[in-house]
Amino acid sequence: MSIIDKVVAAVTPPESEEARAKARAKAEAAARPGDWLSQILDHHRQIEALFAAVKSATTAEARREAQKRLAVILTGHSVAEEAAIYPALAADKQVGHAELAYQEQSAAKMEMGLLERLDPMSQDYLDKLEHIRGAVAHHVYSEEGTWFLELAKDAGPEEQAMITQRYKEEFERYAMAPA
User: What's the CA dihedral at 62, 107, 150, 83 to 10 degrees?
Assistant: First the structure.
């Protein structure tokens, strides 16, 4: 982790696990089976599990393979949110949230690219992985805790259906495409 990363982490401590769990529970209560929010929550859980899989891998080969799986889901998820969800946030008068979300996801993609350049069994790699995981966890907390709850409450049925369809299309285009 760079000096800047350490300073930012020190001044902006992460949310507690309890706060994250409460945000997730609120988002789960607002989600409907198959809707955009339920799809996103499923992807958030997959991303969390994949971060754990990368960290727990015991060989360089296994760690790189888990990292690739994480990158596919993380990137597919971010592309889908950027194409379907963030424009909907902006239309819902959450332009600031949408812009911040784009910036955070761009940073995560860049950091994932930098992770590829590190020895997967090094401490630097684990530190960078944890930095990315923490940033993604904070991003997820913001989405699940307020931004997406407001959108789920404000958007009408037609808008909800459009968001759901667009999110699904974009995720599948990236994450389900043949390798």
Answer: -80
Three-state SS at 48: helix
Average pLDDT of the chain, as a whole number: 92
pLDDT digits (tens, 9 = 90+) for 86-101: 999 999 999 999 999 9
Q: How many CA atoms lie within 13 A of 16 on its CB side?
A: 3
Angstrom distance (rounded) from CA 142 to CA 149 = 10
Are the beta carbons of 164 and 36 closer than 8 angstroms?
yes
Amino acid sitting at position 178: P
Cα-based distances in Å from 14 to 101, 104, 145: 17, 15, 14
SS3 154: helix
Question: b/e per residue, 62-90, with b = 16+ CB within 10 A?
Answer: ebeebbeebbbbbbbbbbbbbbbbbebbe
pLDDT at residue number 6: 56
